[in-house]
Specification:
It is a single chain. This protein is an alpha/beta fold. An eight-stranded parallel beta sheet has the order 1-2-3-4-5-6-7-8. α4 links the parallel β4 and β5. α2 packs parallel to α3, α4 runs parallel beside α5 and α7 crosses α8. It is globular, with a radius of gyration of 17 Å. The N and C termini lie close together (12 Å).
């Protein structure tokens, strides 16, 4: 029942055992689908290889805000070409990240975020959006374009969640709902309309309890689902099924 709507299996953390792990996940891990999000142009190429190899794996093509400073206009053309692949189902991950003061300048991040939003509108794909400590600027772009998509690794409160849902977008929740200081993520999980929930790992990052400190992978979503189910007074199976159905609907993936 597990559908991981956001992972990074092209990451070097999986360099030693990537294919062995993915074979295990798909053969007996209860995982029915994975969306692998790209970070840069090299990542896009790596993900094209992964989705060719694994039938239940799809990918998003895009450049993360951390790498926006290195973007060139030619990259938009390369992303446009990648988006013609039938298993590229979104543009992402794109967005804004204001956490690091020495990261890509904010105006540069906004420029390439908007350019990639324009690309998504052009090719008719949803967006996977990264928003870290940039809520207002992120929302301003989302409200201007009003494209289908997901605010991944959601870090806002209930008010921002409602603003996101009002735009017709989905909310991606992951391992943070299991952390000891998870009050705000659990409030969001409890209040979020079930038809707007996506489950994700952000693997190899954001590992849920009880595996904190270890590499995250898609089977860990079971623990995220359990925490959300408890917050909503329901069962994990209901959460897993709804999130999987939502992911397939957003990304246009048939059973």
């Amino acid at each position: 029942m597990i559908f991981d709507s956001h992972a990074h299996y092209d990451d070097r953390a999986f360099g030693a055992d990537r294919h062995q792990l993915l074979d295990e996940i798909f053969s007996g891990g209860g995982v029915t689908g994975i969306i692998d999000a790209s970070n840069d142009m090299k990542s896009v190429a790596a993900n094209l290889e992964l989705i060719e190899r694994y039938p239940r794996m799809w990918a998003a093509a895009g450049v993360h805000p951390h790498d926006a400073a290195s973007m060139k206009e030619a990259d938009i053309g390369a992303l446009r070409a990648a988006c013609t692949h039938p298993k590229i189902v979104a543009v992402g991950e794109i967005g804004l990240d204001y956490h690091y003061a020495d990261c890509c300048p904010r105006e540069t991040q906004i420029y390439w975020f908007e350019r990639q939003m324009e690309l998504a509108r052009e090719v008719g794909l949803p967006v996977i959006v990264h928003d870290r400590e940039a809520h207002e600027d992120t929302c301003a772009v989302l409200e201007r374009f009003r494209l289908p998509g997901v605010l991944h690794c959601f870090s806002g409160g209930v008010e921002l969640m409602r603003r996101t849902v009002a735009l017709g977008m989905y909310v991606g929740l992951g391992g943070a709902v299991t952390f000891k200081n998870a009050r705000k993520p659990l409030e969001v999980a409890a209040a979020l309309p079930l038809e707007r929930l996506l489950l994700e790992t952000d693997a190899p990052y954001m590992t849920p309890e009880p595996f904190r400190g270890k590499r995250c992978e898609s089977r860990h979503i079971a623990y995220t689902a359990a925490a959300i189910a408890k917050a909503r007074n329901t069962d994990a199976e209901t959460i897993l099924k709804a999130a999987a159905d939502n992911a397939r609907r957003l990304f246009g993936i048939e059973e």
